[in-house]
Design goal:
The chain has two helices and no strands. It is mainly alpha-helical. The protein has one domain (15-58). The chain is rod-shaped. The model has no long low-confidence stretch (mean pLDDT 84). Keywords: Membrane, Transmembrane, Transmembrane helix. This is Protoheme IX farnesyltransferase.
């Protein structure tokens, strides 16, 4: 029994391909981080708006 051709012909990534993949992965990670931070800021701002101006008039 021999392995299929796809398994036999596994090629290692060249340094250029590995660098390109790492750059793409880094870009996606930064994009997700920015999206998550923006989403958090939107929730924070909407929560303050929903509580209204009376939030800052209360006694501590």
């Amino acid at each position: 029994m021999s392995a299929p051709d796809e398994i036999r012909s596994v090629e290692l990534d060249t340094p250029e391909v590995a660098a390109a993949r790492a750059k793409a992965r880094r870009g996606r990670s930064i994009g997700l981080a920015v999206a998550l931070a923006g989403f958090s800021v939107i929730f924070y701002v909407l929560t303050i708006i929903k509580m209204g101006p009376g939030l800052f008039d209360r006694a501590l």
